[in-house]
Amino acid sequence: MAETSAKISSLDPVWRRVREEAFDMLRAEPLLGGLIHSSLLHHSSLERALAYRFSLKLASGEMSEQILREIADEAYASDPDLGQAARADVTAVFDRDPACLRFIQPILFFKGYQAIQAYRIGHWLWQNGRKDMSYFVQMRVSEVFGVDIHPNARIGRGIMIDHAHSIVIGETAVVGDNVSMLHSVTLGGTGKEDGDRHPKIGDGVMIGAGAKVLGNIHVGHCSRIAAGSVVLHDVPHNTTVAGVPARVVGEAGCAQPSVTMDQLIAGEI
User: Fold this and answer.
1) Which keywords does this Swiss-Prot/TrEMBL entry list (predicted)?
2) Can you tell me whether residue 125 is helix, strand or coil?
């Protein structure tokens, strides 16, 4: 196992870094040895480690760890994009969250990252016709992490959800690549209509805490939605919107709002 892990690590810089940080944490805090070994060092790849975390966190009296582990292992084995998205997500959290000092933190401790990885397995189940099981995963993610993402929603790579409490993303929502959002964000509908009824979020968008984006509307690439805003209409590319209801208050202020995480509005300070 150790030899296999070393070979894989040499080809996978993210997994190599996670393992190096795991050994550092083990030396600094031996009391976490059981957690570190069972969650990380015991596994031969990031995918296997994530499958273990998925099964451990979502298991209950209704569904065993073994069954969930088999589901997750099958998902990662059949769809390599799941593992690549997980690497992009952990890199995004490390780059954008000043509280994240190591790659190992999101994997072990950050519920936003863990909820997104669990959603990705639920989405894989949905795409493969296993909708009832995907609903079970959605339910457990909501119960365990306080994050409610419909398994049919489409979410890109490089996602950072900071704090993540009370995130809601509806069935027909689409979230692009390299999007950042804070806690209590809702991507929801405006009524009880069927069909395509949820927001489409472009690449590089930053959504502030408590923002509500409602209806089948489009938020343009690299735009900013200010905290507490209620967005009911399309948002142009590279702009900042704020207010209830939200209106355009200026340009985005930078090329990549989701990366800089600048939430100040020019002229307000």
Assistant:
1) Acyltransferase, Amino-acid biosynthesis, Repeat, Transferase
2) helix
Question: 70: Cβ–Cβ under 8 A, 6 or more apart, which residues?
Answer: none
Distance from C-alpha of 229 to C-alpha of 211, rounded to nearest angstrom:
5
What CA–CA distance (Å, rounded) separates 207 from 183?
A: 9
Q: What is the pLDDT of residues 141-156, one digit of tens each?
A: 999 999 999 999 999 9
Helix (H, G, I), strand (E, B) or coil at 255: coil
CB 213 within 8 A of CB 186: yes
What HEC string does 88-103 produce? HHHHHHHHHCCCCCCC
Residue 104 corresponds to which tokens in the numbers above? 């190992």
pTM: 0.92
* pLDDT tens-place string over residues 177-209: 999 999 999 999 988 888 999 999 999 999 999
The pairing of strands 239-242 and 247-251 is antiparallel
Where are any strands of DSSP class E within the chain? 147-149, 154-155, 160-161, 167-169, 174-175, 180-181, 186-188, 200-201, 206-207, 212-214, 218-219, 224-225, 230-231, 239-242, 247-251
Q: Smallest Cα–Cα separation from 157: which of 85, 259, 50?
A: 85
